[in-house]
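Fig. S4 source data, part A: sequence.
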Amino acid sequence: MTRPETDRTEPERGANAPAENDTVAGAGRAPRRDARLDNAKFLLIGLVVVGHAIEPLRDVGAVSALYYWIYFFHMPAFILISGYLSRSFDGSSNRVEKLVLTVAVPYLIFWTIHQSIYTVERGGLPDSLSVLKPTWTLWFLIALFLWRLSVPVWKRLRWPVLVAVLISLFAATTSLSDTLSLGRVVSFLPFFVLGLSLRREHFALLDALWVRLTSLVVLGATAALAVPISDRLSRDWLFWRDSLTDRDIDPLLPSIGIRLAFMGLALAMTIAFLALTPKRRTWFTALGAYTLYIYLGHSVVLILFKASPWYDVMNNPIGAVLTVLVAAGLTLALCAPWVRAGMRWAVEPRLTWFLKQDDRGADADEAASGPGEKDEKRNERTSGV
């Protein structure tokens, strides 16, 4: 999902070398997609759907442990990839315009859809209709919008990851409202900034045999760890949503220590996950380009499921297994061409008619760019991403 799932790695403005995932063999050639990232995005979005689907069944058997294991790392991993694929954002008018059209507008459309379903379900309007308070899964689009706008600032800092960690830790010691999902914006910030700081050579380190073997141990050990933790630790620590002042323990110690431990756990699992993700094309590699369709589409389907008798009927071990299978099927179905065609108006709206045309400014901007940069901007405008 960069736009959550911006699927092209773009050259960094001001950099002498092309971006790591590009193959620049001639003018006009589109950047090559990175198979590892596409594979990772599809697998992670599958975990997102499964995690949301099994949430109402956490009291059934091992579902709670699976839920905790997924939530240990799936969003930090997705956010790290989002940061890596946001490196070329330079704050220019064209980039901001694209950010509005590809993130803010879909947010408003699906916020309206969510609120419409809730209104019918409750039989009346909710207490608040502020678009600044995202519904359920839409917090990620708000966060991505704000993180992307801040990219030029992080690029200027000497130690951006350290600064982001300090902001994340100490901002969480004050009361944060749910407006703009500020709690999650600052809590997950270090993973986005770390993604911005990564380069191709860092991903190459994941291919070492010892790293892969260690990764198997890490994911296995954390799966075992999820069993006792799911019985003893509040889910609030998994959501990275609320201020540390909202807990029953001191917001400085041990709260900051626990938050740091969860950061370290998420980072270790993210590295392990990426190390074990295939770096060659697989049957699902191409589906990694459609994670925003899955992310936005599954939320509507599951809201309807939760309003139906489904979870009352499936509140048993067999029902939990069936729910996981349904979640996997939903993930694949939302990638189908006919489904994407039906959702395109909402996920990739074409609202350029709403904006003023500034051909003179665009021409001047393109004239000031080098040949490679012209090609990249042309690819952006025509890629549909």
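Fig. S4 source data, part B ends here. Residues 93-122 form the longest helix (30 residues).
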